[in-house]
């Protein structure tokens, strides 16, 4: 089998996730973008595992799926928390890290 | 004992200063008088003892206090030396200085700054003694600077008037100009001697190491220092203005301290100047020019103290003629006699000023002969002495100088000196007759002059009458005792006795002529000189020298400093810094706006960073 189409698919999925992470403000969409990037990496790991005939990649991919599931629970809980604090899920509303200056 | 002479005035100045500062309102008249006048008196006794020892044949005395600078082989000690030259100097400086202190106790009695005055006065004495007794040029320079400082403090003593302050500043700054030459000369001397011990004795022994050109340069630069201190052309303009100080200060500056420092310094370096006679002629020429110049100005002044100030400058000119032509002993002899009659003249003038409630214009005095008999008498003696009428002191010393000038065949210098001698008699008797003889329109209310101000006059009058006998030369039946005693490297000149008599007679005749002219013009009716001809106008305005200096030096200096303070400093220096500050501000704004606390932007930065790193790695690996 030729892995080229797999590589292409992984790249497209990762890029889509990246673009979504950087350009969208809705926290759910940001979360989904992160998930998309993680899944694309999982796909890459599975591809290499098949290509090299070694189970290592598949094992890591399975582990990651478990971690992602745990992370999803945490992430959704945080979004709900943030929503309660600001009544908003727009990421640009959370700017407490910014220094208050006179100019700018 | 030698060290004590110098230390005592400094100590008493210190204690009086501390006491004065602890309570400036309190009048400790008795204490200040006791300490302020007592200390110079003790110094005088010590000086006279040392002088006695030296006369009885004691060798040069040395006294080291402590080592000041000690770098490897190079040592500067705080050390004092009393040889015959400094012995003569300290004995008359302390003696006349003490008399002036006594006089000042009367003159300054009612002044609120009495304690301060005596603090400065003792400091002045101490500085001058330090200068004279210094064992090495560095200590001499310290004394030299301290003299400048204390004269500044004293000239500006009446500091409520801003005119006095600017006079003090003028004296200080012009002295700085001279000191600049002095310090360069010392440095050159030190460098040229390549690290041999830096005392006068050692410099004298190693003077052969310096080539002629460097030696000439050192000689000229040292003389620049002397010009400043001893008020010679072109650095003399501070001297008339220095009259702003109290009269005892003028007496001290003009008689015992300060202005004689320049002449002393040249005599101290006589071993150097005898090797460079060309520079000596330059010095003598400056001296002759100053003598005549000051005498002309003095003839048209109407302020009693300014006349005396110009007269000092003129007499200092004589001293520089002497030391310039190599007659160091004659120069010092004139310093010695001049100290007596100039102190007397200033103190007499001060007494007159006090008697007339601080009137200084001689044309508003007149007819004081009857009221101030003792002062008139003593000042008459002093005037005779300064005019060179025998047998008073000035005749012998001035005659010795003019004979030297004639014998060394510098006829122009001799001519100028002789002419000045006539002028001296004229302007001094003009002062005397105007103040004491002339009829006056105004009625004076004479204030009583305290005894402490008149007794010193008597002592000085005695000195003015007799001090000259110490140096009567061969032609007049003496043996030039002071010249033999000083033992300086004088030039040896021979002149027949008849020529000497002729020259002496010429001086006396010129002096009498000046006296007669002054009597004719000023003894009866007087009026202030009016500026009716151009020449008179120029002379009365002191040849516009102050104005010329203002236009040539001060104004351009002001322009330059104005340009620097208004253009270069704010525009260029501050401008550069402000530009840098502005740039940093804008840069910081740029970078701080990147940190907008929005997570997605941070993610973008991470993306950009990682991309850049990846690209770099790929590029390095040669994949691209």
Lay out the secondary structure.
The complex is a heterodimer of chains A (104) and B (624).
Chain A: H1 4-23, H2 27-52, H3 56-86
Helix pairs in contact in A: 1-2, 2-3
Chain B: H1 2-22, H2 29-55, E1 61-71, E2 74-82, H3 84-107, H4 114-133, H5 137-155, H6 162-192, H7 200-206, H8 212-229, H9 238-241, H10 247-256, H11 259-268, H12 270-273, H13 277-298, H14 304-324, H15 328-355, H16 373-387, H17 393-407, H18 411-436, H19 451-466, H20 481-486, H21 497-522, H22 534-540, H23 545-594, H24 599-621
Antiparallel strand pairs in B: 1-2
Helix pairs in contact in B: 1-2, 1-4, 2-3, 2-4, 3-4, 3-10, 3-15, 3-19, 4-5, 5-6, 6-8, 8-11, 8-13, 10-15, 11-14, 11-15, 13-14, 13-18, 14-15, 14-17, 14-18, 15-16, 15-17, 15-19, 16-18, 16-19, 17-18, 17-21, 18-21
Largest sheet composition of chain B: 2 strands, antiparallel
Gap between N and C termini of chain A: 56 Å
Order of helices and strands of chain A: HHH
Tally the structural domains of chain B.
2
In terms of quaternary structure, the protein is heterodimer
What do the pLDDT scores of chain B average to? Answer: 87
Number of helices of chain A: 3
């Amino acid at each position: 089998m030729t892995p080229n189409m797999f590589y292409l698919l992984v790249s497209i999925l990762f890029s889509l996730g990246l673009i979504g992470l950087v350009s969208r403000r809705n926290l759910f969409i940001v979360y989904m973008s992160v998930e998309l990037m993680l899944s694309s990496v999982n796909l890459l790991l599975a591809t290499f595992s098949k290509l090299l005939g070694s189970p290592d990649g598949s094992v890591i991919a399975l582990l990651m799926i478990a971690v992602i599931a745990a992370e999803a629970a945490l992430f959704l809980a945080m979004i709900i928390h943030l929503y309660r604090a600001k009544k908003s899920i727009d990421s640009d509303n959370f700017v407490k890290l910014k220094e208050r200056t006179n100019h700018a | 004992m030698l060290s004590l002479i110098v230390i005592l005035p400094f100590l008493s100045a210190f204690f009086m200063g501390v006491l004065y500062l602890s309570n400036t309102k309190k009048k400790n008249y008795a204490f200040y008088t006791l300490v302020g006048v007592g200390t110079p008196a003790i110094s005088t006794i010590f000086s006279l003892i040392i002088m006695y020892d030296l006369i009885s044949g004691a060798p040069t005395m040395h006294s080291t206090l402590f080592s000041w600078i000690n770098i490897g082989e190079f040592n500067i000690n705080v050390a004092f030396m009393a040889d015959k030259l400094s012995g003569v100097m300290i004995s008359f400086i302390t003696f006349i200085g003490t008399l002036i202190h006594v006089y000042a106790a009367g003159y300054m009695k009612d002044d609120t700054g009495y304690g301060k005055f005596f603090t400065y006065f003792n400091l002045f004495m101490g500085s001058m003694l330090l200068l004279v007794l210094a064992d090495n040029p560095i200590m001499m320079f310290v004394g030299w600077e301290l003299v400048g400082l204390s004269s500044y403090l004293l000239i500006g003593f009446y500091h409520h008037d801003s005119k006095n302050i600017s006079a003090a500043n003028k004296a200080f700054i012009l002295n700085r100009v001279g000191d600049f030459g002095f310090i360069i000369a010392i440095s050159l001397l030190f460098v040229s001697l390549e690290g041999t011990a830096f005392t006068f004795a050692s410099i004298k022994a190693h003077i052969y190491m310096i080539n002629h050109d460097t030696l000439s340069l050192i000689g000229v630069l040292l003389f620049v220092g002397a010009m400043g201190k001893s008020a010679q052309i072109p650095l003399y303009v501070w001297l008339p203005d220095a009259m702003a100080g109290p009269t005892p200060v003028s007496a001290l500056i003009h008689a015992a301290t300060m202005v004689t420092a320049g002449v002393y310094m040249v005599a101290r370096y006589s071993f150097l100047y005898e090797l460079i006679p060309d520079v000596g002629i330059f010095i003598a020429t400056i001296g002759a020019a100053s003598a005549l110049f000051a005498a002309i100005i003095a003839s048209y002044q109407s302020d009693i103290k300014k006349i005396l100030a110009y007269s000092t400058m003129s007499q200092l000119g004589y001293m520089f003629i002497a030391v310039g032509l190599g007659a160091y002993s004659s120069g010092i002899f004139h310093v010695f006699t001049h100290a007596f009659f100039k102190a007397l003249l200033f103190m007499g003038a001060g007494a007159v000023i006090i008697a007339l409630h601080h009137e200084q214009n001689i044309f508003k005095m007149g007819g004081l002969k009857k009221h101030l008999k003792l002062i008139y008498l003593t000042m008459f003696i002093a005037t005779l002495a300064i005019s060179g009428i025998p047998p008073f002191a000035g005749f012998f010393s001035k005659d010795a100088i003019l004979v030297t000038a004639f014998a060394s065949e510098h006829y122009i210098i001799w001519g100028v000196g002789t002419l000045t001698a006539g002028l001296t008699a004229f302007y001094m008797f003009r002062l005397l007759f105007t103040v004491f003889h002339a009829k006056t329109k105004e009625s004076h209310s004479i204030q009583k002059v305290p005894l402490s101000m008149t007794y010193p006059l008597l002592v000085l009058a005695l000195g003015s009458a007799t001090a000259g006998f110490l140096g009567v030369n061969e032609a007049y039946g003496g043996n030039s005792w002071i010249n033999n005693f000083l033992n300086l490297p004088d030039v040896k000149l021979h002149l027949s006795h008849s020529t000497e008599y002729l020259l002496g007679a010429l001086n006396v005749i010129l002096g009498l002529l000046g006296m007669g002219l002054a009597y004719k013009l000023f003894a009866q009716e007087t009026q202030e000189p009016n500026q009716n001809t151009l020449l008179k106008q120029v002379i009365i305005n002191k040849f516009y020298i102050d104005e010329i200096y203002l236009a040539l030096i001060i104004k351009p200096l002001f322009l330059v400093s104005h340009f620097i303070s208004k253009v270069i400093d704010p525009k260029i220096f501050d401008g550069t810094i402000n530009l840098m500050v502005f740039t940093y501000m804008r840069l910081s704004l740029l970078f701080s706006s990147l940190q907008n606390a929005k997570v997605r932007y941070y993610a973008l930065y991470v993306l950009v960073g990682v991309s850049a790193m990846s690209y770099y790695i790929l590029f390095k690996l040669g994949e691209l």
